[in-house]
Amino acid sequence: MAEVVDLVLSDGTPSGLMIANLQNWNGVIVSCPRTLLDDLKARPEVHKAGIYLLWGDDPESDGGKLTYVGEGDKIWDRISSHNRQKDFWTNVIGITTSTGEVDISKSHVRYLEALTIKQIDHVGRARLDQNKPTPPQINESMRISMETFFDKMKRVLPILGYPFLTPVLEQSSNEGSTSGPLFILNSKGVEARAILTNNGLVVLAGSRASTEDAASWVNGRQIRERLIREGALIPSGDQLEFTRNIEFSSASAAACVVRACQSPGPILWKEETSGLTYKEYMANLSDSTTN
Q1: In 10 A of CB 102, how many CB atoms?
Q2: DSSP symbol at 23
Q3: pTM higher than 0.85 for the full model?
Q4: What are phi and psi of 287, to 5 degrees?
Q5: Separation CA 256–CA 223 (nearest Å)
Q6: Which class for 53: exposed (0-12), middle (13-18), buried (19 or more C-beta within 10 A)?
């Protein structure tokens, strides 16, 4: 079902401060880079109760992301404190209600914070820079209200550059199946399966990867090392196994990690039904849109 997002670009560009919400939602989200905290401070939304998200590159993981979730009675006070105490983050988002007065209680924001942390940990697209809190005990009506609020919030955050609550592969409504063509890579004694999405290839959980590293291997080596550190690739017999769906920006990047060597991904991945290589499949797709 289509939804309308109201998005205000404070300086007319998506790289500056942005304010977003959904129509018929009582929430509001304010996003900005760390370099524009003076502009953020001037926004009334951050002087209310809510949660906030910090994120940036993970200093301990090449190519990985690190994030922190917090809550506060006035979220600006917490953001200001982290500006002095935490170095890793480059962007911040504040999430609160859009009404004129504060109408979100401490229990509300603590429950929302716990939901957010749990989802980030489950999705695995970023590492959390914190312990996982225990959700507060709340009544049923409050729980339903905050879970509805959380669902709306999740839909807006990727638009603001925060994808860490969104699974890399969305499930369709057809018995939980995934949409998009399925590609198979069978080489070096391992088999991997991947779904084509708008962002690239998502290698599916259960796929296998080789442990036989080629001496000249460069592209993808650091990605695989990070996936092993994160537990996304674990030993399974004499191979490695993907424990969750992993998104790759290109067919070659995915193939390099699976085969543990330099790999021409566009000709190694083959579409399950037609047998076409990834390169052939994409060429046919391009031809069909131009005719």
Answers
A1: 14
A2: T
A3: no
A4: -65, -40
A5: 10
A6: buried
Residue that is written with structure tokens 């131009």 in the block = 290
CA distance 210 to 213: 7
Three-class DSSP category at 206: coil
Per-residue pLDDT of the chain (291 residues; tens, 9 = 90+): 678 889 999 999 989 999 999 988 889 999 999 999 999 999 999 999 999 999 999 988 777 899 999 999 999 999 999 999 999 999 999 999 986 544 578 888 999 999 999 999 989 889 999 988 888 888 998 899 899 999 999 999 999 999 999 988 764 433 344 568 999 999 989 999 999 988 889 999 999 999 988 887 888 888 899 899 888 999 999 999 999 999 998 999 999 999 999 999 999 999 999 999 999 999 987 665 555
**Is 195 within 8 Å of 201 (Cβ atoms)?**
yes
- Identify residue 11 by its one-letter amino acid code: D
Mapped onto helix, strand or coil, the DSSP state of residue 254 is helix
CA–CA dist 154, 165 (Å, integer): 7
Locate tokens 């890399």: which residue?
168
- Look up residue 85 and give its two tokens: 């105490």
Nearest partner of 131 among 56, 205, 69, 219, judged by Cα: 69
Distance CA 170, CA 160 (A): 19
Contact 36, 18 (CB under 8 A): no
